[in-house]
Amino acid sequence: MKIGFVGLGVMGGPMARHLVEAGHEVRGFNRSPDKARGWAEATGGAFAATIAEAAEGAELLILCVGNDDDVRGVVGEALKSVPDGAVLVDHTTTSATVAREMAKAAEARGCAFLDAPVSGGQAGAENGRLVTMIGGEAGAVATARPALETYCAAIRHLGPSGAGQLTKMANQIAIAGAVQGMAEALHFALAAGLDTDGVFEAISKGSAQSWQMDNRWKTAAKGEFEFGFAVDWMRKDLGLVLDEARRNGARLAQTALVDQFYAEVQAMGGNRWDTSSLAARLNPENLPSRPK
User: Fold this and answer.
1) Over the stretch 51-106, which tens digit does the pLDDT of each residue have?
2) CA angle 117, 166, 241 (to 5 degrees)
3) What residue ranges define each of the domains in the chain, with the CATH number in brackets?
4) Which of 102, 117, 143, 270 would you label with 63, given CA atoms 20 to 30 Å apart?
5) Which residues are catalytically annotated?
């Protein structure tokens, strides 16, 4: 397929690389031109100097940018250049509201828009093992699927526009609770004077097991928080969750509390620490040094 890709950061760069490796014709744009040029040189993809250049002639235009306003800006520019019938796939985590807005704008232009946030982090992007949750038309999903399969281990179509973003919100709610539970269990083990490696071996084989425990317990016990998805990004996501909950009436007391805890981590200087740094809030003495 002829594909434009906008946003070549820690997630988008590897995702676009997988597309090139699968034989697709990919033009990549990034707001930092040097990053886009470096990506093109490293992967064999093509460099696009503008969003319009990435979008021109593209059957598929994929976005992986920062927030609602970024998506509005990119889609507004891209719809001026993409051909009729193009499918726009947005991997950014945004509000369901902007997903529905963009779907209407694309439809008016004779195109389709899919909200398709992903889960799996930088490692999932690098290894082509992401999970994507999609809202939009089934026909557009079928068109995009061969490309998405190059970097996604699971592709789930959840319903109409906005359903992908709402599912990602449920994902972030579950993660927030799991990380806080792990942080408190680790804090308790340290306060009790237990060997944290031994505690991990004991409890991670039973019903307390989780991805967070398997992948973050030992590093959190050492005060190491340099492993991917940053606190700033998590707070952005939880802000979207809590805004949506105010609209739909969902009661998210634990999620609101964990969001406040992440604000405390930010106040400690942990804006770019990974999400397991909730443990740092409970055990600041355990930090060997302050990560930058």
Assistant:
1) 999 999 999 999 999 999 999 999 999 999 999 999 999 999 999 999 999 999 99
2) 100
3) 2-159 (3.40.50.720), 166-286 (1.10.1040.10)
4) 270
5) 168
